[in-house]
Amino acid sequence: MDASASWRLEAGGSGDGLTLIDDLLGEQRTLTAVERFARAHDRRELPALERHYRRLLPASAPGPGQQYAFEVDLDKCSGCKACVTACHSLNGLDESETWRSVGLLVNDPAPRPASRLSYQQHVTTACHHCVDPGCLNGCPVLAYDKDPLTGIVRHLDDQCIGCQYCVLKCPYEVPRYSKERGIVRKCDLCANRLAVGEAPACVQACPHEAIKITVVDQAKVRGKYRALPTLNLEKEKRGRGGKEKSPGGLFPFSPPPLFPAANTFLPVTPNPAITLPTTRFVSAKPLPEILFAGDDAFVRPAESHLPLVFLLVFSQFAVGASVAALVMNSAAWLLVVAAVTGAFALGVGTLHLGQPMKAWRAFLGWRTSWFSREVIVFGVYVLLAAMTAAC
């Protein structure tokens, strides 16, 4: 007997003579599937799944020189996008915002011999929480932080000014700009869940367990993707015979290239030596050396960024006017033009930001961000041009 029928018997015995309102009130007492699940969960009537999900997490937290990372089993990914839905729901993302995506990889679309089979593979990707993240290095306002204990690259929403420079710096197009919020956001590997021993949303949602969390050594990632000369220093120091060489013979070798020829991360992605991604893509089948994204031939219109167009044009015009003033006699008016157009370029450039009122923060990342350095240099130039014109 359902809740509606039970309510009718309680209200009027057989339920005869009840009005439409009585029927509607009775239906409201019928629990939906979600409500029944929630009640069963509260009563602990469901099987405990903590041990099941714990298999998808590392046995211990990262130690010194280590960090958390995603591991994706390509053979298990079916492209169902359950991970995308779970990430979107748990993190409360905007309608058009995604922190995890699922794509399709294909091999060379050109005509191939009959002996060469076609290749298709679904792949799920999110932020790679790189050892040397481009988003963090390029951010002009220090809105990114790499946790020293877990290695997770987090975005600090309250610091962001919406310049989108991190979107350009990330070769994997991970940060996502939200026009409604005026800031950039990205995956944080569900750090709050990991802190209490729970698996991230995408890990729990995958029906085939294609995603799990692992611990990687940052030095191994760096050595794998960037063959730096210091890694071979010890070998060269000892020489081929195992004897230590003299100090004058420490560097008699040609260092390996910074960008190796073969992409050992994932063939279709940008070179991993740029940012040192930590995600591991594993497969029992060898991957073709040349892969393409399924939408590789699809053309998407880019954002116009009109304020940046005015910034570029008028900043160049200001510099040109000041240079002309140096070689011309009685060219004070050129200095005035340079100062005015330079100030206008700075002002119109702030319209590109999602948070224009926070534009003054753009100098904070001067240690690593070329964006900050450009802002400082051009700001000083405009100030000097204005002072010279006034004198």
Topology overview:
Layout: H1 3-12, H2 20-28, H3 33-42, H4 50-54, E1 66-73, H5 82-90, E2 101-106, E3 120-125, H6 134-138, E4 144-146, E5 153-155, H7 165-169, E6 176-178, E7 183-185, H8 191-195, H9 201-205, E8 211-217, H10 218-225, H11 233-238, E9 280-282, E10 292-293, H12 306-327, H13 332-349, H14 370-390
Parallel strand pairs: 1-9
Antiparallel strand pairs: 1-8, 2-3, 2-10, 4-5, 6-7
Helix pairs in contact: 1-2, 12-13, 13-14
Core attributes:
alpha+beta; 391 residues; 3-stranded mixed beta sheet
Describe this structure in words.
This protein is α+β, with helices and mostly antiparallel strands. It contains 14 helices and 10 strands. The protein has a 3-stranded mixed beta sheet with strand order 8-1-9. A hairpin with a 6-residue loop joins strand 4 and strand 5. Helix 12 packs antiparallel against helix 13 and helix 13 runs antiparallel to helix 14. The longest helix has 22 residues. The chain is globular.
Global morphology: globular
Sheet having the most strands: 3 strands, mixed
> Rg from C-alpha positions?
29 Å
Helix content: 25-40%
Average pLDDT score = 82
Beta-strand percent range: 5-15%
State the separation between the terminal residues, measured CA to CA: 92 Å
Work out the oligomeric state of the chains in this entry.
single chain
Q: Give a count of the beta strands, DSSP E runs of length 2 or more.
A: 10
- The strand order across the widest sheet is 8-1-9
The unreliable regions are: 7-14, 228-260
SS element count, helices: 14
Structural class: alpha+beta
